Records
---
Amino acid sequence: MAKKRPSLSVRHVFWFGSKLVIFASTVICVFALLKFLSQSKLQSSIALSRRSRSLGDHFQGPPKIAFLFLARRNLPLDFLWGSFFQNADVANFSIYVHSEPGLVFDRSTTRSAFFYGRQLRKSIQVAWGESSMIAAERLLFEAALEDPANQRFVLLSESCVPLYNFSHIYNYVMSSPRSFVDSFLDVKEDRYNSKMSPIIPKEKWRKGSQWITLVRRHAEVVVDDELIFSVFKRFCKRRPPVEDSKGKQNLKLQKQHNCIPDEHYVQTLLAMSDLEDELERRALTYTLWNKSMTKMERKGWHPITFSYANAGPPQIKKIKDINHVYYETEYRTEWCRNNSTFAPCFLFARKFSRGAAMRLLSEGVVGPFDAAALLNTHL
Ligand SMILES: *[C@@H]1O[C@H](CO)[C@@H](O)[C@H](O)[C@H]1NC(C)=O
Ligand SMILES: *[C@@H]1O[C@H](CO)[C@@H](O)[C@H](O)[C@H]1NC(C)=O
Ligand SMILES: *[C@@H]1O[C@H](CO)[C@@H](O)[C@H](O)[C@H]1NC(C)=O
Ligand SMILES: *[C@@H]1O[C@H](CO)[C@@H](O)[C@H](O)[C@H]1NC(C)=O
Ligand SMILES: *[C@@H]1O[C@H](CO)[C@@H](O)[C@H](O)[C@H]1NC(C)=O
């Protein structure tokens, strides 16, 4: 009896153990199968979206410009853009808006029917100056790539205005096979974080304005990138501003590396993809910087907002007459071109107040001014 008991319990343990092994391997198999299925589903959905996108690479038919608006909330200058699109062919453009999640553009939130329902389905909460901003940009490009007719992609802020009528802008942008990306070497500032190396080598680090215009192929590069984006998410972070309430903690916070993702991401990605010779390395959107600050404040240069008073014909003409841009850090003068012909540099400008935009409208900048139509927009 005494002999049997251990042998029984050994058998029992063996029986239990083998059941456990079978159970565990079944669980592992099911798990692996599920993972495989979800991965292949993900991969096939990626492949599907790539396939539908690549249809656009050989698109026949009138090409469209996709206007991509990155907004905090509403579009305060919708009345001016509405008038701009009024003078366009609906077959020649499309509109996408990334705004607060849940905000729907309809009669109650915008004065221009062109924006109705044009918000992205999956917009995210954006913290200005952080990587969620470039995530939002990527969502805009991704949504716009679904339409194979979209061949140029213009990224705009809520305070950007057009400086010409639609057909002028359309011809200018379409006649160039290149993207317009303000991009230069960033030698004075120390935004590059050495932890990005070796994935992003220092010599590929670029800076430039966020407000870019891309050809379809380059928009695809931005949407398909996971690697550079993930490095930016980890190592390119904005240093928080000094807050008195934080006292001593400020010192620690101010020692953090400071980087503004939206001023570096696309520029660096395109440099890393060896696509710089397919760019006009300058912006289409004019920004007037306030340089009247002291040297100490210089790091925080701010764009000047145009008001009704300084958006008159002489000021607008001055912007339109600019035909070159000087890049100090590279000693490079960029003579502005539209394809191979010399052309004025800027098609858009920021930042414009409502009053300034109203003035453009009444001066007929985007098309013939119709006061009666304006009254109907209930400004
Ligand atoms: C657009 O503006 C150009 C001048 O820049 C003018 O020649 C053209 O007639 C205008 N087109 C429309 C449709 O208003
Ligand atoms: C619309 O696109 C067609 C084809 O590209 C072009 O001929 C036409 O001038 C465009 N219309 C406007 C208003 O830009
Ligand atoms: C841009 O180039 C096209 C042809 O290459 C030309 O028809 C158009 O007038 C140009 N636009 C400007 C603003 O120079
Ligand atoms: C750009 O210019 C080149 C050379 O002048 C010309 O062959 C080409 O057709 C132009 N592209 C467009 C889109 O107008
Ligand atoms: C430029 O910046 C200075 C200093 O911050 C400020 O006093 C001034 O009002 C700004 N100018 C404009 C036109 O915004």
---
Amino acid sequence: MRPTRPRVTRRGLLRRAAALAAFGPLFQATKPASAAQTAALNKNSAPSKLRITDMRACRIASNYDYPIIKIYTNQDVYGLGEVRDAGVEGLALVLKPHLVGRNPLDIEPNLDRIRKFANHRRTGGGYSAVDMALHDIAGKVYGVPAWRLIGSKYRDRIRIYCDTDESKDPKIYAERMRKRKDKGFTFFKMDIGPRLIEHIPGALIDGVATEKGLKIFCEFIQAVRDAIGWDQPLAADHFGPLDLNASIRYARAFEPYNLAWAEDMIQIGHLGQGGDAPLNWRAYKTLCDSTVTPIATGESLFGLEEGFKAFIDNQAIDVIHPDPLTSGAIRETKRIADYAVMHGVRTAIHFAGSPVGCMACVHTIATFKEFLAMENHAVDIPWWDDLVNGVPKPIVNKGYIQVPDTVGLGIELNDEVVKQHLRVPGYFEPTPEFDKFIIDDFRRGGPYPHLDEHGNLVTDW
Ligand SMILES: [Mg+2]
């Protein structure tokens, strides 16, 4: 027999509320709101009636272009999001008709609707921008930081590493890295690319280092190690057009230097120019199995199932390195990192956008069980911090970013500064050209000829 549940009647509830109200200030929340209180009520407190009304954009010209979007609602609350650096805002705007009229708080159903339009490299950027804006809205509506919507906070600050301009002189390169350490950074990455040795006869064949070239690369790493210390994590990137065999040669040569990881080594035979969106997990598995240098990749992969799962399931990677502005932003990157840690794979974060996307990453990373470091590509751009208000400045402070406890993403755009750095004219102008469906999966355009249940041909819905 099914156990009977105690019946809860409306009258019973009212009686309990009255009893609680009798306790006075202890249960202020149960008192009926006065007219003054009602007037001061946050309009966002009608979440069930919240609807998406519009999506608009602007594009900031910086070290890369930063396409920024705003999702508007019928209750004056809006959300900010960012498409992947060097992408375009249209990747998000084409999703507008799939979202308008829907409740932005239905984060997962909304994302489910647009997932089929997301892919690797920049084409993951539209989905990712929408994810950020939905979490910004939901955080504001519920009065919680975005990280609270996806998990618990495992850390109060996020460790940052930054890129550093290379030099053909190992001493100058090492000195630049030492200056990063002086600024408080505790995680480092250097580029070990063909440009460093292209002027040296016999060092390269078609962009790939010979044994002579590899020895010179090692002198660069040695110089940087001597400058920052052997006790500091040091990663490496941008090796040039390597195939699997060349990658193995490089990774083995670098083993004495205890790299934190070697990034995106295999550049041949993969998705798109540059090879930073690898789909060939088998080649990466062979590389991982051939060296003790930790291997990282993933900055241009979208999604757990679409991009990262095969690498993790097959132990084909030591460190995943998603860029949340491609990988699916807050909710999806959390899924990816949780799946990785469950399988003993570590997570670092690639990032090269504006403070909007940066703070979305910070909220996401705050919830990771384990984490190495997050990239910042803009520590040398003097006005980068000024693009937003609401967070402590400098945003990257002594090598770390503070995790906000303010609502949503915790930032607002500084309109004046953003307007000074627009790539294309227009600042969140109306976007009627995106009102109709431009991309879609299955949709009847209107009445269509078909047989009804009696076998008669009709033109109807
Ligand atoms: Mg990289």
---
Amino acid sequence: MAPSADRIVIENVAIATVDAQDTEYASGHIVVAGNKIESIGAGKAPEGLENVVRRIDGTGHLATPGLVNTHHHFYQWITRGLATDHNLFNWLTALYPTWARIDERMTYAAAQGSLAMMARGGVTTAMDHHYVFPQGSGDISGSIIRAASEMGVRFTLARGSMDRSEKDGGLPPDFAVETLEGALAATEETVKKHHDASFDAMTQVAVAPCSPFSVSTELMKQGAELARRLGVRLHTHGSETVEEEKFCHELFGKGPTDYFESTGWLGDDVWMAHCVHMNDSDIAAFARTGTGVAHCPSSNARLAAGIARVPDMLAAGVPVGLGVDGTASNESGELHTELRNALLINRLGAHREAALNARQALRLGTYGGAQVLGRATQIGSLEAGKLADLVLWKIDGIGHASIADPVTAIVFGAAAPVTLSLVNGRPVVENGRLLHADEDAIARSTREEAQRLARIAAES
Ligand SMILES: [Zn+2]
């Protein structure tokens, strides 16, 4: 770190580093220099630091790595609260006709709403899997990336696509999909225009055909080849429901994981959302290949999809992060509450009270997320030399003060208020409010765009 870098010093704070040893400090310090963590440890910060622009007394707070979201569909922010009593396939067919009418103005507002909700709750790295690109809808990818950049969060855009419509045995209507060639060309263009491979990148792009039931086998195969040629990651939905499993057996003569393997979609550069219906050999295949999982407990519950076998995945060595999933199937859109939901829902599964503990839940939402996004050397834990993406959770208020253990307080307790979040060393949230966005204006614009979309969909 250059000696001239501005420093932020945080002291008197409980720290859960989420490093490999789960190192914690009851009262410690963090020194941020520029966009990196310079030092972290017990007690006070070193004396004689120069260029200290800010000293923060962290009394009554827990510092953790910033939360990392690994699966989302931002545009759904303006189609929340619809088809509320449906399973996945019925929910999708109810919503596709509306989704197919989105445009750039709508996706920008929806991205702002999605990002605001997550950032306020301690998310420092967001991702958006966007796969609906109606013809003539404008620069949708650009609008989403602009919203993330303005909010100040680190971001991965998973450039999605669909080319298997009803006429080819798929689920989406014919007018909601792209052609194979069009999807591949637009994806390559988005990677070349926006993907930053550097250590402290704020924007990355992944190749992300939507799902086996909305994408041709050829797009899966060529998408994988494209990503590997460009050196970017691969993302899709996998093994979400029993209906999807049945679809794969009928159409491909094999289950989802075997289908993914046959199309080049298992590997340490791949992560998949959901992975609810996995047998022992599927989990072993993910572990053997280093394929990651975005676990989305609230969405899985909302759509009655089932409970992913997260304890078995972790025991096998599968990288697992958390995702809120699109907010048409998880209307809250918050990630910090997913720590608690992941823990509780997995305890309803086979492993019962041994399924997950508070520290494992925190790890899923931080280091696990960094792993599946391919950024574990840069973010996901608080360690000297890593990027300064961190959150100070207020735990001395009514919701948490009577819980002695800070990690138990933020995971088992109510959603803890965020006093400060830093992304790349820069404050993004202070005292629960966003610093680079107007929440009231976003509330208004998202309502207006939701109404505009509903109107256009009703007319068509
Ligand atoms: Zn999804």
